[in-house]
Amino acid sequence: MRVITAFGMAFLLAIGAGVSGPSLAQNYPSRPIRLIVPIAAGSVTDVASRLMAQELSERLGGISVIVDNRPGANMVIGGTECAKSAGDGYTLCVVSPDTMSFNPFTVPNLSYDPDRDFRPVTNMYYVVEGLIGKQALPANTVDELKKLAIEKPAAINFGTLGEGTTTDMYRVWLNEEWKTNIVGVPYKGGSEIVNALLTGTIDISKIGMGNFAGRLNDGSIKTLALRSSKRSELLPNVPTLAEAGLRGFPGGPIFWGVVVPKSTPDAIVERLHKELAQILNGPKFVDFAKKQFLEIDASSPAEFAAFLKEDRESARVLINKYGAAR
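The structure corresponding to this sequence follows.
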């Protein structure tokens, strides 16, 4: 029987470590890939992720890309599942500001570290948000809303996702900017806020415009302004928040991007970015994004990493200033 000495074993392990990365990348992919999505099925981002997974499968020669929804705990469940997965290129993870920027400051004993556990691959897109009013809101512009809020403090309510969330911090910021008292009304999810606006239960909110993609012209809501880099082709007469005079909110934009477990080899990260950038800038995804009010940003791994660093700093500033405010 052949005996391998400790020295011999160490030598073999060293050789294996030296060739495993390149060898893995050269043969990649050879089996199904999992795409972890940290929210429930049916949302705009879930649908976008499934479209991306389908096209990625086609570009990888028919290798299955399986969407694995891991919702809950403000993206912590999905982030944790990603962090503990093998860095072999067979787990991709969709992430958001909650996963990467806010949870490190708001979740005690967070079960993952965005810097230690993940490698950025690409940003996918930014969500265009709207400052939306109910149909009966007696204001048609941001200036009219401001005047109403100042003249009737506490008479206007704002749908939020609860105290300390970005929607509620935006309400607090508005109150500070306008020297008024818009009242927060907490809901458990974006769909509840949408329904509350459509039924007139709440007066205003700031929420992704994709939630109203099919109701832009039926008069059921009032879109006062958009949080976007430019005016939308679908709503050319609606100003951006900046154009409407609402500059200065310290929070970053809502983004959704792709990361992989930290030990994923460089060659695989580069391959994934190349394929995903082609998909995100391709005609199918561009058409989908336009209809769902998404601004595509197929950034490089280095660009996405730099953005994530900046966004986490914005989150820190926002939480320190408005997170505990009322």
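Confidence is low (pLDDT under 50) at residues 1-20.
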